[in-house]
Amino acid sequence: MHNVYGYEDLFNQLIKNYKTNNLHSSLIFYGSKGVGKRTFINTLILKILEINFKDNEYEHHTNLFINNVHPNIKIIEKEFDNKTKKLKTSISIEQIRTVKKFINSTSSIIKLNKFIIIDSSDELNLNSSNSLLKTLEEPNQNTYIFLISHQLSLLLPTIRSRCLKLKFSNHNFENFKKIIETNIENIKDTEIKFFYDISLGSPGNAILLYNEDLNDIFEMILENLSNNKITTSKIKFCNYLSNFDNEKFLNVLSLFKTILIFLNKLKSEVLTPENFLSLKFKSLNNVSKLLTKQNIIDRFEFIVKNEKDLFNYNLDKKLFMLKLLSH
Question: What phi and psi, each to the nearest 5 degrees, are found at residue 285?
């Protein structure tokens, strides 16, 4: 079972509420992406299975849940589009309609409540949001709906008002380090500090960045951001990035935006080098001195304004990067 580092008190309270039949039927788990909301929910359900079942029976139900085939647990996520070979852009109304059928159907497992996980509810479109709202307005006594949200403001106010909202704050360094060391073997302390800074204390994002080898790319970005001249080195860097698949390239753009945000905060003196644990991040201060505030803002706005078109219309990644770095 996963350890819910940093959220132990909340976990124990929810389990206590479940045992005493006081657990709210609709919960929103909200906070930054990657802080562990889905892991927390999975661990919560595993504990509930342990409460309801023993020995081999518990192991059987755990395997069903892990393989997403448990008859009393339904997980709603964006579906894969066989035509475009990509994930769909939103959770559809058809998917939410299956939730209603799931709630109303008779379960073969009488001694276990039904659980619905929507990951993430930010990806509901207007139709699916309204459909879910109707379900929330008519709560079933034996059903729990768990909504995951990375940005609470994206949910309809009427949905938010019908759920108990549980905030998941970003981790402090101590808990972050425990989680990273549990998931990544033999990682150096200097790397942990770097990923803590770059992810703002989000272990999920840090693990993603680690797996994508974005540690080295960070230094390349700083080197190529320091001026707006097109050099041979900058062209080579753009060529290198242009060979990434869309998913990895999108992660690189997220890294660019994060760096630009930090540079802007350093430029505005909202942050100082002392706010960072990593020596790599302290070097951001030197880069910020080489750029104007407007230059930083222009580059950030260029990414935000153009990144969707880049992927939607399959535009040239090399040209995109050259334009970004010459701003």
Answer: -65, -35
Give CA–CA dist 253/258, Å, rounded: 9
pLDDT of residue 8: 96
Q: C-alpha angle with apex 305: 250 to 248, nearest 5 degrees?
A: 5
Beta-bridge partners for 27:
146, 164
Strand ranges, E, within the chain: 26-31, 73-76, 80-81, 86-87, 114-119, 143-149, 164-168
Say how far apart CA 147 and CA 164 lie, in whole Å: 10
Tokens of 60: 């059987």
Angle, helices 189-199 vs 173-183, to 10°: value is: 120
DSSP letters spanning 157-216: HHHHHTSEEEEEPPPPHHHHHHHHHHHSTT--HHHHHHHHHHHTS-HHHHHHHHHTTHHH
DSSP 124: B
Point out the residues of the chain with pLDDT beneath 70: 1-2
- Kindly give, in sequence order, each residue whose CB lies less than 8 Å from that of residue 108, ignoring residues fewer than 6 positions away: 71
- Tracing tokens 């207007």 back to the chain, one arrives at 126
Rounded Cα gap, residues 57 and 19, in angstroms: 19
Give the pLDDT confidence of 148-206 residue by residue, as tens digits: 999 999 999 999 999 999 999 999 999 999 999 999 999 999 999 999 999 999 999 99
Spatial contact of 111 and 101, defined as CB atoms under 8 Å apart: no
Query: Closest Cα to residue 209, out of 186, 180, 240, 238?
Result: 180
What are the beta bridge partners of residue 145?
Answer: 26, 116
